[in-house]
Specification:
alpha+beta, about 35% helix, about 40% strand
């Protein structure tokens, strides 16, 4: 089975962090790592930071967290636009090849 990469969005609730969105990159490690490196946010995870974005990889069909950043609501908006634009670009390039 191929390794799959995705970005996982989560928000802090009273019960802990709850996932609310995922963006899939398929098996393109370079694209996933490259995009994650462009996201706004802090690698310093703070208790008061309610929004997390994780770079995830599946290994033997099990999810593995590679990196996490926390971000503000404004940073999250910027990041979502960036992610959507990059996925659109990558998927359209795949269809052209």
């Amino acid at each position: 089975m191929k390794t799959q990469f995705y970005i996982l969005m989560s928000v802090k609730t009273l019960q802990g962090f709850t996932d609310y969105g995922q963006y899939f990159f398929g098996n393109d490690r370079e694209a996933a790592y490259g995009l994650f490196g462009q996201l706004k946010g802090s690698e310093q995870l703070r208790d008061g930071c309610p929004l997390h974005i994780d770079l995830m990889e599946t290994v033997n069909e099990l999810p593995v967290k590679i990196k996490t950043i926390c971000c503000t609501l404004d940073e999250l908006g910027h990041n979502c636009k960036l992610i959507a634009r990059e996925i659109f670009r990558l998927k359209n390039l795949e269809e052209m090849l």
